[in-house]
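To whoever picks this up:

The parser on our side crashed when reading a file containing two proteins. I've narrowed it down to the boundary between the first structure block and the second sequence. Both blocks are reproduced below exactly, byte for byte. First block:
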Amino acid sequence: MAIKIKIEFLGGLDIISNSIREHKVTVPFEEGEATMKDLINWITKNIISDPKDIPVFIENETVRPGILVLINDTDWELEGMEDYVIEQGDVFTFTSTLHGG
């Protein structure tokens, strides 16, 4: 079985995914078994268009500091971070808080 979710890249972070801000995807995970850690790994392999951009998103095998992560509009720290279990229809938002100026 697969899980349908939405992934958003905001605050300029869409640059890592060919400037596409919203991705409605079906991920090849079993509902109730896959975690946010699995999703982060899947994103680096399937959405980030240039391998050189992976360090913009990932540091020490997790989302790098300076990127706000929301799971269904709730801070991922309140949802268990990498241990959050992915569910059908979830919305994952990654927003860069680091802006040039």
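<<boundary where parser fails>>
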Amino acid sequence: MNQLLEFIKDNIQITYILILSIFVGVEVIKSIPAVLHTPLMSGANALSGVVIVGAILVMLHSDPNDFIALTLGFLAVVLGILNVVGGFAVTHRMLQMFKKKK
């Protein structure tokens, strides 16, 4: 627990950015009509790609003995990749609905 508090104290600016991005993300998603959620999945894939790159950069610049940063970075990479794969699957399925049947 002390390691977690020390990590937050050492990286307070990153913590503020994370909290602010959560609030901005909730407000952006809340204001989008439900009809547009599926077509916007491709845009969400691009955002998840940014999350993956950011998590990799955080892991590269963290101390090799800082297991909290490495664990959180790894978790962010895994969840970002799952989101990208799921987004492409949903987008592909949506596009299949508009194709003419043979």
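After patching the parser it read the second block fine. The mean pLDDT is 82. Residues 1-31 form one domain.
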